[in-house]
Every structure is written in C-alpha cells, then in structure tokens.
Write a structure and sequence with these properties.
The protein is built from four helices and no strands. By secondary structure, the chain is mainly alpha-helical. It has one domain. It starts with a helix and ends in a 13-residue tail after the last helix.
Length: 133
C-alpha cells in the first residue's frame, strides 16, 4: 500500500513539474532562476505557499520589464566584450586584421550560440545575481 501511495505521489509530482515547465517555456535559464527566487521571496514574505502561476503574474506585472531591460544591457555589454576579444585573438593567432563588423559577424556565426548557452548558466548573467540564486 505504501509503495502505491509513493508511486502516485511521484507521478503527481512529475505532472506538477511538467505543468510548471510549460509555464516557463521560452524563458532563458537566468529568467527561470530569477522567477524561482522571486517565488521563494514571496513565500517568505507572505508566509504561505504561492503557486508558480501566481508568481508569474507578479513577475510579469511588477518585475519583468525592468529585469529584462537590465538583462539586455548586461548581455549586450558582455557580447561586445566577447567580440572585441575575438577580434584581438584572430589578429594575434592568425595575424589578420578584422574590422569590427567582420569580427562581429564571424563571432555570431561561430560562437554566439554556445556562448549564450554558457552565459545563461553564469550567475553574472542575471541583473541582480543575488536574486537569481
């Protein structure tokens, strides 16, 4: 009997996780972490359980616009830095000079996707790293 009960709880938990993951589809990992941190904060503040749906409503209504604007600023600055470093590395290693536009295009084609995946996992990719823990 206990095994069946545990299995039902386990299945229900995975349905809850699936439902939650559907609510978070299309968001960057750093934003998901920020939303989860927001939910934790709200639970402490309100001293009660708060659903992911409720958290998302608060997130979208009060927090997301400013958070995303700051995130875009940080991401843009970091990408510019990466492109400049790429431009320097090409010149040092290959001895060829790239104008900034060519370096940017090369970097985007060769490195942007893997850089973005890496960057999103970094605490610094969050506008307020303490908020995204």
């Amino acid at each position: 009997m206990a095994i069946q009960s545990a299995q039902k709880k386990s299945r229900g938990g995975s349905r809850t996780a699936q439902k939650a993951s559907k609510l978070l589809v299309g968001l960057w990992p750093s934003e998901v972490r920020a939303i989860q941190a927001c939910q934790t904060f709200l639970r402490r503040e309100q001293q009660c359980e708060i659903s992911l749906q409720e958290t998302l409503e608060i997130w979208e209504g009060r927090i997301s616009r400013k958070w995303r604007a700051e995130k875009m600023k940080i991401d843009g600055q970091m990408q510019l830095r990466e492109i400049e470093q790429y431009q320097s590395r090409v010149q040092e290693k290959e001895g060829r000079k790239l104008d900034w536009e060519t370096a940017a295009q090369d970097w985007i084609e060769r490195h942007a996707r893997t850089w973005r995946e890496w960057w999103e996992e970094q605490p610094a990719s969050c506008p307020n790293p303490g908020f995204c823990s």
